[in-house]
Amino acid sequence: MYDPTVARLTYRALLGRRRALILFVLPAVLIAISVAVRLLVGADDAVANQVLGGFALATMVPLIGVIAGTGAIGPEIDDGSIVYLLAKPLKRPTIILTKLTVAVGVTMVFSAVPMLIAGFVLNGNSRQIAVAYAVAAVAASVAYSALFLLLGTVSRQAVVFGLVYALIWEALIGSLVPGARTLSVQQWALALAEKTAPGAGIASDVGLPVAAVLLAAVTVAGAWYAGRKLRTLTLAGEE
Amino acid sequence: MRPDTGNHPGTHPGAAVPAQRGEDASIHNIGYRHYDGPRLGRSYARWSLLVQSLRGAYGLGRSAKSKVLPFILLAVMVLPAGAMVAVTVVTGADELPMRYTDYVLVMQPVIGLYIAAQAPQSVSLDLRFRTVPLYFSRPIERADYVGAKYAAMTAALFLFTSLPLVVLYAGGLLAKLGFADQSTQFLQGLGSTAVFSVLHAGIGLLVAALTPRRGFGVAAVIAVLTIPYFAVTTVQAVAEFQANSATAVTWLGLASPGTLVDGIQSAFLGGDSGFPGFHEPGTAAAAVYALVTLALIAGCWAALMARYRKAGL
């Protein structure tokens, strides 16, 4: 269910040229902010929560997820070169699973690792905050990758819809309507972080069992439906 | 100028044509005429490009599918204004729930999405399909192309951000909140959206012009607009609540386009500051805010001009 050649091509599409630049800049911004904040106010748990939860997990992780998730398949569908891949004797679910693995790997490397470093910079992992947010970033990157990979196969405007979900639903509506937070990858990931570091002031609106079930469900359903969608893909011309 | 019909090579009376080739191999005059109508020139081409780009920013003149997103976003943008007007009229409040200058800043995610969706549409497709050289085969210069695209994006963005203000203003007048007061605030709001539009159109177009792939352009524009904004807001909150440093809050605001407009509207246009702790930039800071904004706009223009020096060739 994993094809090394497809994986290699996807890595090259994701990390080639300018796309890699933005993927490197985002974690660099996070670490620069952490250093600045540490110099400004010193080690503080509440500040670490604010930077890691309010900025990194809320905006950086979804954005990297959108770039890696849709970037793993979107451009190929966009320029039509996906037909050469589909014409090879590979099962469609294999293609999707391989691309999903790559997208998850890239999102994790560019979000969870900087998250851990930023956590250590901010307060030296006191009360396990750095580890907790890194765990949350890992969980979120799996779910985001599956979700945005699915979007990439469904729509040509995948990036826009992915951003609508990440910015409008999770950030804007989530902050106004409490109910919207139940259906938010960010809150599910926060539930994991809450469990990893109890008493560190990390709060989620979703219970851990519900969050774990929903994370798994979104990932599996997203990957399965993307595989199905790839079997019946129609290539449309440029609008 | 018409071609002389009696003088084409095949039947030229004075030509010493060898007799055996003369009859079969004549080139016929098919009546080609030069264009001798009016030439509309550079300003007309520039104006056409502007109008076409502005219509394109709302999907007009394009497929039905590409009209969906801009108009949905426009509806999302105007709906809260309508709701505020309804609340004000029904409850008989003596002022609107939100100041005109604040509206743009609160709705930034929606506006960001609009720029991210439409700026690549405006410039990336031309680059990707290598149609830019075709534009320059018309009598327009590089400055005309960049200027038309910039002006069209600014106008589209200004329409997008000022329509809800018009709704709020109409509601404010209907609720009899005081004509002079409302008008002043409305004009200040329009000033703030104008600054916002010029600045954000420049940044959006520049980022989009650097990335010919549309999907990636969308992500890049949104990253450049939102990541600095959230980063600055986070650090500002830390500076306010942990370090209690009002100066740090106001100077940090220079580091992202969103907070830059926030500082400008609170310093020059009578708005309330949206910074943590509601600090407004002081006189020196305000001057720097204005300078940085102007420098950013000029920088975007210069970078766009440089980008199109060799575009598509």
TrEMBL record, chain A:
Gene Ontology molecular function, alphabetical: ABC-type transporter activity
Residues that span the membrane, as ranges: 21-41, 53-74, 95-117, 129-151, 158-177, 206-226
One GO cellular component term: plasma membrane
UniProt entry keywords in alphabetical sequence: Membrane, Transmembrane, Transmembrane helix
PANTHER family xref list: INTEGRAL MEMBRANE PROTEIN-RELATED, MEMBRANE PROTEIN
Protein name, entry field: ABC-2 type transport system permease protein
Organism encoding this protein: Streptomyces pini
TrEMBL record, chain B:
Membrane-spanning ranges: 68-91, 111-129, 150-174, 186-209, 216-239, 284-304
Protein name stated in the entry: ABC-2 type transport system permease protein
Top-rank lineage group of the source organism: Bacteria
Keywords carried by this UniProt record: Membrane, Transmembrane, Transmembrane helix
Species name: Streptomyces pini
Chain positions covered by the region annotation Disordered: 1-20
